[in-house]
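So, could you explain the following?
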Amino acid sequence: MVQIGNLHFENTPIFLAPMEDVSDTSFRMICKELGADVVISEFASADALIRNIRQTEQKLSFCQRERPFGIQLFGNEAGSMCEAARIAQEYNPDFIDINWGCPVKKIAGKGAGAGMLQNLPLLIAITKEVVRSVKTPVTVKTRTGWDETNKPIVELAEQLQDVGVSAISIHGRTRSMMYKGEADWTLIGKIKENPRMRIPVIGNGDVDTAQKALQVKERYRVDGIMIGRASVGNPWIFSAVKSLLEKNMILASPSIEERLAVCKRHFDMTLQDKGEHYGILTMRKHYKNYFRELENFKQTRIKLLTTSCAEEIVSLFQSIEKQYIKQER
């Protein structure tokens, strides 16, 4: 049994990681349908939220079918983070997640996200104040440290637990690694070995197959698994992971027909939610994996990634159906 606030999971919960311009409502709903247990919003700026920036406020909205659902916030100052958490609480999420892990320069360079790993006393102080400011359970997502010489995550996890965090998600890379190199799960395992740790520990990093999920679960005994980049254009990874972990069954890869059908629905939902211009831009991140391994697909892929017309993309979907699905049948 895994408990996070008021949430209870009989089996190992599988999380969709919060990803900017990826984990929007449309993609979250598709991932939920295909096996994700928990989804989290794109990360919202505390400063923008308290200034009532509409684009940021929209990130907090979700539908009941997405539950369990978390809202993730980032910032570098206790006052704004606490006020933003109180605003987020009004949307009634299942938990509020603090982003102490984003490595990108525009966030970490300002002392937010993974940048806070250079100021652990402030990180702990802000987290403590946020926990005190809301009734909603608070979780944290972070990394193993700033760089190879500064990886305090084992001690930090215990400190976060002590200030009231309900769960911690850990990406097995340092900030300096960004998304390069191989995620190091050994420190995540050491956190689980700490007899003082009582809160759930969710592992994240390089889980791109069901077999890898099973490997890290068995080796490091994490309470949950978070999947990020490997889900982009590949939401079936959640059902594959759950099937292997819970039933010891390996699912067959989705057919071209299945991939196209989900891609088309994802496209329609995204355009309905974001409009044609932004919807088309958002979907470009997903096409590579939706149509991976299709032979002689280069020109079609280039068109999908460059056209700005919804009707042209629908026409490309139709040509994929004619060219590939009829062959598959």
User: Anything to note?
Assistant: The chain has a mean pLDDT of 96. The domain at 2-247 is CATH 3.20.20.70 (TIM Barrel).
